[in-house]
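Fig. S4 source data, part A: sequence.
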Amino acid sequence: MTKILLDLKPALDGFAGIPQESRLLFYWLGTLDGYDREGLIQHGGKILRSASPSNKTDISSSRRIYQHSRLVVSLFNSPSNNILETSAQLCQNYFALLHLQIRALTGVPISLSNFDGEHFEDFVWSTLFSKTLHADEKQPISLSRFRILKQSRKLFHRAALEGIKLFSPPRYAPINTKGYDFFVAQTPFPGKISKGTRMVVRYHDSVPMLMPHTIKDKAFHLSSHYYALQENISAGAWFSCVSESTRNDLVKIFPEAETKSNVIHNIVSTEYFEEESPKGIIIQIIRNRLSSSKEFVTDLTKLELDFTKDNGKDFTYLLMVSTLEPRKNHLLLVSAWERLKYTSMPNLKLVVVGNKGWNHEAIIESFQPWAKQGELFHLSNLPVTELRVLYKHAAATICPSVGEGFDYSGVEAMQSGGVVISSDIPVHREIYQQASEYFNPYSSENASMVIQRVLAEEGVSIRHTLRHHGRQVSALYTPDNILPKWDAFFQSFKKSS
């Protein structure tokens, strides 16, 4: 039996690509014969309470449940609101940081505590997995086992980075992973693992290094990404990249990673598929999922009148699904859409789905005048069932990013029977292949021309071809196609040992 410890830190986050990949990979690896996988729960910024120590067997059931409950509570603790609590948290962080630095110096590994989800099914499901998986998948997830790393991921990074003045390269704290054949990290991991466990870094993108101007907390993310990546490479980690484009970027930065890296594309949720749905329900989706952002209010009066008149048959819209952040290129899409509004397609609407990310202010500002007129709709927190409908009925789903590691939204749209138009960047060419039309991500004029060509009446054959290819291309990323690659990947180490 091959034992795998899988990093679930991103699963505590929202709907973005890495959290989705973390949930999907954890679930589907659990369906493979011959594998015993457990999840590693660690918070990005909070210090957690330990659950049951891994070496204690004489603890009573009531005490064990109480300790598990304390762990759950620690994940939801609110920031301090008075001086005493703030001081206590600062002290806790200081000593936790010092503890990690001492462990890094001495090489004494940090133990992981056990967390059994048997009595905490709702917590495990709602907190870690429900944003991506189907309810039918809850039962096997609930029976899974988890390990807890109580120090936050950020503290692990800081402990090493703050030691750069004394040590070069920085020293990282070790964790005890004895008994596991593999540890699969979802980003460069700021720690060492036990001898006998092979580290596999699921490498999603090099954005913090190659596009640092597009990320939040730029200096920290650049340093934490680079030094952790350097540490993983020097420790002999293997890199499983989500695309060939991502692998090329990795090798560009660290050429020595070429012989220890491969490509296994992301698994895309089976929740996206073609189904019959009346277009009229789109008005309900828009009304129910409009963003509650205080920056603007959307006037739905005209939209509701149009839907009442023809049940939405003439409601034509472009769709974009992505977190609101600069790299996703919302501003270019708005500009290209405005060109179409002012010229050949005055009735074309824009529907944007996504939560606010960093540096979202300029994006929201570009939405404001159109949202007030009921021409642009910013939605958030959509369940898969509703997003599937939006993908299907959109005139096209637009993927305008200037940089990506994989980009789920285009594949999800294809699986749902939609048409995809995307920016002409290497990863889109690789993942979407002939199932997308492409435009220059730095030219709103070119983007509007490509969108118009696809959406025009004479573009019927283009749309038909895109849908046809979309069904074929999106099938490449189903569990049936991706899981055998993971199986072959893990088995290759057994053959070589």
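Fig. S4 source data, part B ends here. The chain has two domains: 2-267+478-496, 279-477.
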